[in-house]
Amino acid sequence: MSNNTIIKVEGLSKHYLLNKNATQKSDTLYGNFINGIKSIKNITKKNETEDFWALKDVSFEIEKGDRVGIIGRNGAGKSTLLKILSRITPPTRGRIEYSGRMASLLEVGTGFHGDLSGRENIYLNGSILGMSKHEIDRKFDEIVAFAEIEKFLDTPVKRYSSGMYVRLAFAVAAHLEPEILIVDEVLAVGDSAFQKKCLGKMKDVSNSGRTILFVSHQLASVQSLCNKAIVLKKGMVDFPLSETNLSLKHYLKEVASLSKIIIADRTDREGQGNFRFKNVILKDNENQITNSGQTGKDLIFEIEYDINSSSLNNVSVAITIYNDEGRDMVTLANHIVDQPFETLKKENTIQCRVNKFPLTKGSYICNMIAYKDDVIQDYIQEAFNLEIEEGDFFGTGRIAPTAHHSFLIDNKWSIR
Amino acid sequence: MNKDKIIIDPNLSSFFSLKDVLKYKSLLTNLAKRDFLIRYKQAFAGIMWALIKPLMSILVFGYISSKINNIGNTATNFVYVASAMLLWQLFSSVFNDVSNSIIGNSNLFSKVYFPKIIIPLSTILVCLVDFLISLIILIVLFIIAGQTIHWHIILAPLFVLLTLINGFGIGLIFATINVKYRDVKFIVPVILQFGMYATPVIFSTRYYLDRLPEWLHWLFCLNPMVGAIDGFKYALFGGEAIYNVNYFILSICVSFLFLFIGVKYFYKFERSFVDYI
Asked: CA–CA distance from A41 to each of A38, A124, B177, B198 (Å)?
């Protein structure tokens, strides 16, 4: 360990055995009963299992004061890595050496209890995160001020607005003073002003010489917070720990190449699979197939799918569009606009029409997800790329410079 | 730079360390405080339930035992039943709560590291507070029955402690099994229900042993609660509560055996709990 190294990870691997023939959950009481009898009958039989390496031979060294971003798609092993680092789960192989006090923030408000007051929760949550009573006493006023909840200190937190709840939870965590701070996605919550405050607080933390490990899907916040980043892919290091920009570039190139694969051939999907996306075709307002959309013109997403029976009820489908920095822009979902599909037949296709497409020129990436009765059937990240061309949104012949917009909305001006 | 280097590797094994527990002392008390505050929140009778619940059992079983034993002076009989019943309820709440404590708090240790033994330990604190409140019943009954107090009473806390050890040791075994097999939550109430009749709660050890064939006596006394309850009765009433000193010691040995097995078993699987939750 060189003098400046604070965390050293060597050949870290984590292995899970997945149950192959896990008893299928049944919806009916009778089915559950039969399953119960079957499992008692099979009690002596060994379950067939499947090997799964969540992490494989991951090594890196972090220097004191580094702010390290960990990037990767779902299932890349980011969370597993954080869990091993924070001693929640043991590794199967390899070792980690670190020095100093480490605190991990894998969730905002761990152990918060709705029936307890804000004051009681500060003490509870603080002690869960490893603060002593004395430490919490000392920081109490600061925490309350940061969370802006002075008036509601003795109100049970179940009566808090979700914003207040998150603010309080983050405030406790932010006042930990570890040498190493591990943060997972916590910034994805709260309003944007508060997110800024959190990022600011985390920058303060790192400026005081502490080390931060940070996982986020928001590439933008990785970019603004971290000076180094590592890319994980399928449990392995895909791009070694290097300058944030280099790592991000590599990752985005990966993502772009992935979405060129036809959706039907994608294997990296999640969900039960009763409904599977096959293809997405873009169409313009004349119902002509097109490669790209245009700002201000109608855009139709035509979704082809497969179902494993002749018809399927109560399916909802959503497309999330995000920009090339990883920031979510908009979600199109039929259940949010309350236009449910009563019955889907095998031969149908689904159409989603967006009138006057509001996003400005640029490359976007779309995730697709399908539910049946609130159970995920198919979920594909980075399912397809969406190119948007410049267009005359307002019908005035004037096109606003994209530097000032990420989307456009109609607006009317007048003098009264 | 801080020199306390920490190494994480697959073979790292831990065992109970008082130093670790003391380091997380504030977590221990805060968790206990949380459980205690929540337990009676939004209950109209609030903390009174800590009295009502045991009082009901004492009244019912005290009445039954006085009928069966044909004892005239029931106040004394109620004191006897109450002392055993309170201790049994302490055991059953510790056993039950400890065996559910790990899965009940999985949301905590799947997100933050701390010595997991803190969770069952804090459970004990909560049960103990309930027990101390319910002691009021015993004191009142003592006064009603006009019982005199022996010097042995200073031994009473030892047998409360022994009860905690019983509940904790056996509870830890079940807490560990519970992580993988949720059947535990159904089994524990059954064990407790039958266990009460195999323990001198309603009747004395003498009552049982007089009716059991001799070769079953030692089996009866393998029940760790026999030692705790008989000892407690001896501390309160003196006299012949302890039927046979050898059996009494046997029962206490079983208590510590369970404690040892429980702690050992718990620590053996502690690190992999998260993977099964």
From this structure: 5, 45, 20, 31
Whole-Å CA distances, B224 to A36, B150, B191, B244, B251: 33, 25, 14, 14, 5
**Cα–Cα nearest to A161, from A171, A149, A177:** A149
CB-nearest to A124 from B2, B34, B274 is: B34
**Backbone dihedral angles phi then psi of residue B45, each to the nearest 5 degrees:** -80, -10
Whether A128 and B26 lie within 8 Å, measured CB to CB: no
Q: Per-residue pLDDT tens for A109-124?
A: 788 888 889 999 999 9
- For chain A, the straight-line distance linking the first and the last C-alpha, in angstroms and rounded, comes to 71
Closest in B12, B41, B110 to A90, CB measured: B12
Distance CA A311, CA A309 (A): 5
Strand order in the sheet with A93-99: A49-63, A5-19, A93-99, B5-8
Interface residues of chain A, partner chain B, Cβ below 8 Å: 3, 6, 16, 64, 83-102, 104, 106-107, 110-111, 113, 115-116, 120, 123-124, 127-133, 136, 179
pTM of the model: 0.75
Q: Which residues of B touch A133 (CB under 8 A)?
A: 26
**How many angstroms separate the CA atoms of B229 and A389, rounded?**
82
**A344 touches A315 (CB < 8 A):** yes
CA distance B20 to B224: 29
Domains of chain A, each with CATH number or no CATH: 5-21+44-256 (3.40.50.300), 263-397 (2.70.50.60)
pLDDT band at A26 (very low <50, low <70, confident <90, very high): low
A402, pLDDT greater than 70: no
CB contact under 8 A, B112 and A91: no
- Which candidate from A90, A127, A129 shows the least CB-CB separation from B272? A90
3-class DSSP state for residue A54? strand
Q: Determine which of A2-6, A270-274, A302-306 has the lowest per-residue pLDDT on average.
A: A2-6
Set of chain B residues whose Cβ sits within 8 Å of the Cβ of A52: none
Would you list the DSSP string of A79-118?
Answer: HHHHHHHTTSS--SEEEEEEES-EEEESSTTTT--TTSBH
Backbone phi and psi for residue A266, each to the nearest 5 degrees, phi listed first: -70, 135
User: A22 falls in which pLDDT band (50, 70, 90)?
Assistant: low
